[in-house]
Design goal:
Number of helices: 5
GO molecular function: ATP binding; nucleic acid binding
CATH architecture: 3-Layer(aba) Sandwich
Order of helices and strands: HHHHH
InterPro entries: DEAD/DEAH_box_helicase_dom, P-loop_NTPase
Radius of gyration: 16 Å
Strand content: under 5%
Distance between the termini: 38 Å
Largest sheet: none
Pfam families: DEAD
Protein name: DEAD/DEAH-box helicase domain-containing protein
CATH class: Alpha Beta
């Protein structure tokens, strides 16, 4: 990633149909070994995935989110975009100091459907379990008992 020229990054974005509304956007993370992800994240991703490079939405989202910037990422259904925003949230939460039980959440992810909320919860659990993180899925129609951390 760091070794890619500006022209190469722009060619990657163009080839993948990426539209940017701002300048000075961080270069995408095009390979896991180029990232500074914690070991627990790398191991979990490599164990659950059968590829060596992130999808386009992941590559772009991770570099932006991990630079503490806001973004809106839009990708086609089925493009496995959940990891694009769950992974930065898990990394952010894992880097926080210990919290007291009465403290509120560190990160909140909102989904438009109960099924997607559950899928996000499962993914966050898979990634966060290795770091001792807790998460809750609060979805309409589910029992209240399971919606408390």
């Amino acid at each position: 990633m760091e070794s890619w020229s500006i022209a190469e990054v722009e060619a990657y974005r163009k080839a993948n149909g990426v539209l940017l509304k701002r300048n000075n956007v961080p270069k995408p993370i095009l390979a896991f070994d180029e990232s500074n992800f914690p070991d627990f994240v790398r191991k979990e991703i490599e164990a659950r995935r059968d590829y060596t490079s992130p999808t386009c939405i992941e590559a772009l989202s991770w570099s932006i989110a991990l630079s503490c910037r806001n973004y809106i990422g839009i990708a086609e259904t089925g493009s496995d975009r959940a990891l694009a925003y769950v992974l930065p949230a898990v990394i952010h939460v894992s880097r926080q100091p210990p919290r007291k039980q009465q403290d509120g959440p560190i990160a909140v992810l909102v989904a438009p459907t109960r099924d997607l909320a559950r899928a996000i919860h499962n993914l966050a659990s898979e990634l966060g379990d290795h770091a001792g993180l807790r998460n809750v899925c609060a979805a309409n129609g589910d029992s209240k008992g399971g919606q408390y951390a």
